[in-house]
């Protein structure tokens, strides 16, 4: 479904990604893990079209995405909830959600109700400003907004970062439901190991810009965790 082949990225001459290969199969949830600064967000930005790689290919099905603008990729089916969430603080929850709808226009209107059912807390806050929401509510808004672009692949960058445990569980349950109901694939960047083990089908671990381990989530053992994930 989504295939990254041999992606290399440099920032100002220094190499950040070194030949990354990664596959997100249809209808599965793939976790991309790794310590701070190893290149996880850069990988996602390359998929979304915010970073231009020096080399490599990103394919959605048979379609090459490299060279296409981010809005074109969104229309083709790449949904993105960035790290730090990027909610518009002065727009209402409803206005923030509408930003997602713009991608497909009126076509996606029927989905609003479904997405609000997935995140009931947002339904009660539609007229509130994004900036007054808690971190957990903003994260749910960011995921809901990405879902309203009607993605084939939903890309999430550290959705549990800075969020209280009970909301993390709720987001985890919702991801599993989305995956099952909406028939889409999810690529999740995450440093919270237990969360990955609970929701993921497979994992990739990145270290200094390269994939150093991968496999079904059941193969994620203490040895791998100790070597590549614990600080
Ligand atoms: N715009 C930029 N210009 C120059 N260097 C950058 C830029 N963005 C990121 N970097 C560097 O690239 C490396 C990878 O950054 P990236 O944000 O992809 O890491 P990450 O794995 O997402 O980290 P974190 O877990 O902290 O979010 C880091 O060393 C970072 O300092
Ligand atoms: Mg990051």
Write the layout of secondary structure elements.
Layout: E1 2-11, E2 14-24, E3 29-33, H1 40-48, E4 55-60, E5 63-64, H2 70-76, E6 78-81, H3 93-101, H4 111-118, H5 120-123, H6 135-147, E7 153-157, H7 165-182, E8 185-189, H8 193-199, E9 202-207, E10 210-216, H9 222-228
Helix pairs in contact: 3-6
This protein binds adenosine-5'-triphosphate (ATP) and magnesium ion.
Structural features, described:
With about 230 residues, the protein is α/β, with parallel strands linked by helices. It has a domain of about 160 residues: Rossmann fold, CATH 3.40.50.300. It contains nine helices and ten strands. It has a six-stranded mixed β-sheet with strand order 6-7-8-3-9-10, sandwiched between helices. Strands 2-1-4-5 form a four-stranded antiparallel β-sheet, covered by helices on one side. Helix 3 packs parallel to helix 6. The radius of gyration is 17 Å and the shape is globular. The protein starts with a strand and ends with a helix. The mean pLDDT is about 90.
